[in-house]
Amino acid sequence: MSLIAQASRTVPQLLLHLNRHLVTSCSSAASATSSKPPDVDQSITADQLLGPESQRRCMEKMRSLPAFPRPKALTPSRREKQTSAVLIALCQERGTNEISLLYTRRSRHLRSHSFQISFPGGRRDDHDSSYVDCALRETEEEIGLPRHRIQVWGEAKQLQLPRTSSIVPVVGVVPDFSLSELRLNWEEVEEAFSVPLTSLMLPKATRHTQFRSGYSGPVFVVDHYRIWGITGYLTHLFLHCLLPPNLLPDCLKTNIKFIRPFKLPPKLPHHREHSAGDPSMRT
């Protein structure tokens, strides 16, 4: 099962650095074109997003993500030696040809992070020949989508995450997709669903959440689905890599600012402790 949810609370510094990198890249690309971003309601065709040029541009960006130093406050963990892969699947919906992203919800039977939303995927084992092989195997085991249905674009750069395994996103296209063809492994997956790209690009869908450490991360809310943590950030990251500047809406260009933790005032001494220490309060 995907380890994305397990990393959601431990990598806010990474989110901050990657977000700054995306904002810088987006600003540079936007300055190179004078085209005004269209309204999100404007249809985005498969030819625009799934052609060879789009694939080349997207994977170049996914492979060029910067590396970041470990936060000093976090000590190494044995789990960091493990690696996992997830599948970011661009689905061409059957009948409409609409482009969507495929997500899963973790099973209620799992001991940790049950019901949280993630991409299909999981830990790489000794039998996997590559991260692509790992992502395709885990996807087939979790939701029954066979590997021959997925047109693989390639691997992104490995994301080194403190206190948990590193993650390699694998990007692929699923033509003529229908949720009805999936066969879920109920021990691992509670639900599988797809979200249209146009829904993820709406201003009302793009939000943020603040971690306890004070860092903020992107969140997408579509209908009753709340996509957050590493899954939310990978969604944010992927949309920046996939969409050309003239199709990127303003709501995805907004920098998610760093917010320092709120510090509670010191607790006042208990009245009994105060009474014991103050002679004037003795009877």
UniProtKB/TrEMBL annotation:
For the keyword ATP-binding, the answer is: no
What keywords would UniProt list here?
Answer: Hydrolase, Magnesium, Manganese, Metal-binding
Q: Which residues form the Nudix hydrolase domain?
A: 81-222
**Entries under InterPro entries matching the protein:** CoAse, NUDIX_hydrolase-like_dom_sf, NUDIX_hydrolase_dom
> In this record, what's one Pfam family?
NUDIX
List the Gene Ontology MF annotations in alphabetical order.
Answer: coenzyme A diphosphatase activity; metal ion binding
State the SUPFAM superfamilies in the record. Answer: Nudix
A GO cellular component annotated for this chain's UniProt record is: mitochondrion
Top-rank taxon, per record: Eukaryota
Q: Which cofactor does it need?
A: Mg(2+); Mn(2+)
CDD domains (UniProt xref): NUDIX_CoAse_Nudt7
Listed Gene3D superfamilies: Nucleoside Triphosphate Pyrophosphohydrolase
Q: Kindly give the PROSITE patterns that the UniProt entry links to this protein.
A: NUDIX (PS51462)
Q: Which residues form a coiled coil?
A: none
Kindly indicate whether the keyword GTP-binding belongs to this entry.
no
Alphabetical list of PANTHER family matching this protein: MITOCHONDRIAL COENZYME A DIPHOSPHATASE NUDT8 (PTHR12992:SF11), NUDIX HYDROLASE (PTHR12992)
Q: This chain belongs to which protein, by name?
A: LP09908p
Could you tell me which species this protein originates from?
Drosophila melanogaster
